[in-house]
Amino acid sequence: MERRNFLRSLALLAACPLCVKTAFAAEGVHWSYEGEEGPEHWGSLGEENGACSAGSQQSPIDITGAIKADIPDLATDWKSGGTILNNGHTIQVKAAPGGTLKRGDKTYDLVQYHFHAPSEHLVEGKSFPMEVHFVHKHAETGALGVLGVFLAPGAANATFASLAAKFPQKAGEEAALDSIDAKGLLPSSLKYWAYEGSLTTPPCSEIVDWMVAMEPIEVDPADIKKFTALYSMNARPALSANRRYVLSSS
Known about the structure:
The protein is mainly β. The chain is 12% helix and 31% strand. It has one domain: Alpha carbonic anhydrase (Carbonic Anhydrase II, Roll), CATH 3.10.200.10. The protein contains four helices and 15 strands. The longest helix has 10 residues, at 2-11. The chain is globular, with a radius of gyration of 17 Å.
């Protein structure tokens, strides 16, 4: 735990393209999801990315063998609106100020949310067509709390459909969102799996308290195609849990 807290304190100011930066031009070392700049090479692209190859608590993982536990309930109070951006790696929404996620007595501020295809986390070896990550930051400690939700093909989801209609088509493009309600991307139950992990993009800093919703949401397959037409594969492969415990809502 002391090692993790030390690494967390070192990494809090590290810039993560999918976490705190919204400017496409400010992403630093170039990286990709394939080829010589793909995930297996991230750790060698720059010193700041060392955790991508040397870290022992990397994300995502295959969620398996979870232990039922009395973990705190989650409660969201997010605000409508924001800014939607194509940052060259994903579609990201910079959240409107004031949104929060509460986990027991700990409160995080919603910074942004973004999408991956296919899902980054697996469940008992199974992947989903997409996953959305809601990235939060604890105001006092700077720790990150990320809530992941799986997207599966099915009935149309009004929130995702509205976002899909506004996906910026070129890297660097962005647009304002007036009335998008991110809570529409949440399942009816917020039972979840919890584990300690990392950012899933460079610099892969091990500073994330992960919360992954057990229940996926359904979205229109046509809206999934609107995302995969832009990013057909932007998921880091699942990595070893390295004997970490995964806790689940009882």
